[in-house]
Amino acid sequence: MNTTELPVRPDVAAFVARVRELLADLPEEERLELTEGLEADLADQVAEQGGGALGDPEAYARELRAAAGLEPAARRRVRLRRAMSVSEALDDARTRWDAVVGHPRVAPVWAIVAALRPAWWVFRAWVAAVLVCIALPGYTVWGFTWLPGVSNEVGLLVLAVCVVGSTLVGMGRLVPGGDRGTPMRIVLIGLNLFAVAMIPVAEQHYQDAEWAQTREYGFTGTVSTGSGVTNRGREVCNIAAYDAEGQPLVGVQLFDQAGRPLDVRCWRQHDRTVPWVLGDVTRWNVFPLGEREQPARTQEQREDLLGAAFPTPDRATTPAVTNPLVPADAEVRPTPAREKDRDRREREREGGDVSRR
Amino acid sequence: MDQTQLLKGVLDLAVLAVVQGDDGYGYDIVRRLRDGGLAEVGDASVYGTLRRLYAAGALTSYVVPSESGPHRKYYGITPIGREQLARQRDDWHAFSSTLDGLLAGPAATSARGASA
Question: What is the C-alpha to C-alpha distance for residues A184 and A297, in angstroms, rounded to an integer?
């Protein structure tokens, strides 16, 4: 347009610029057709009639539009222009964003973030699944499974459906993902923002469920699964046993209520403690376990028992205890065989107690 | 009667008439119309009309760079424009004679009305 070699009078230039602005809703080509050469025409007119020849640019643009046969569409065009400006704003934001992440310093980081997009799809699916589960009738916080408040099966099903849906949307195979129309783009942005906003809500319900489980069972599902015996929330690494008279015992074999050897296991238990053996089989349910001064990481180090010893019990004896099931005459030293039996029964009970706590 | 109201229906015809002999740029055409007696014609109306006739294929346009200022956009008539001109000229003649007849009639009517 500006092939002018001499500047147009500033008042004419401003007038034409304003008129172009008022025709901004028209397609670029049409606007160009309508205003091309306008500077020259108006400059002539001003030269002939003086600066007063330029009137109100709005009236001028209206007249131009009407004469060009565009007025009937004017109202519709205004609405169209709003819709276009929203989509243009989205395109604009997208372009700016692309420019930012395309910056040489940002691009490598952004490539990693972009590769993690599926993780976001899964995560937002989880958020959606939690919301679905909250909305399901009969929601109660009763423990962590796949999702708070519902059974494992329902939780898994809801989660699977949400993950598949979220991924399809992410891949653009499912509305509003694939539709590039303005309303669907807005819906998609809105849903993502909603998911972000709902993260604290989902997190809170997750926490509630975990707490509910902790209160109910005394331990959390995540801790109880792999490790051995937990006592008041802390792992049991070794056991100091005393008999009814309060004397420390060595070589106590413990089994749970089902007859399974008590599985006492701490972090790096095998490095730090010396097990009992039955023939060439190590037994970890016999207490106390010997403890090493230095962790033994290799088989050679484990064979070296230097510095390993039974731990000193935290007390030399404990008060003697009684139980109504044990007759008073049991105080009299029983035969070795019966003692063994009784001890075994007691130890089983004891073992069960420990593991249940 | 306000000339602009009358012009609305016939501005196409007037514009085609003034470019049929010679191509012209926007303000040049405005000037020809005003010199021809359409003193009240708005330049924006003329430019819009030129654009509409161009879009309809009745006019062709070309840009002539100017040594001394902004370039000018010239318009010339096309065969389609000539056809339109001829058709609308006939329409106008028919319309104006109809209107002349009406204008002659109502005079008598109003005279009768006055005598009644």
Answer: 59
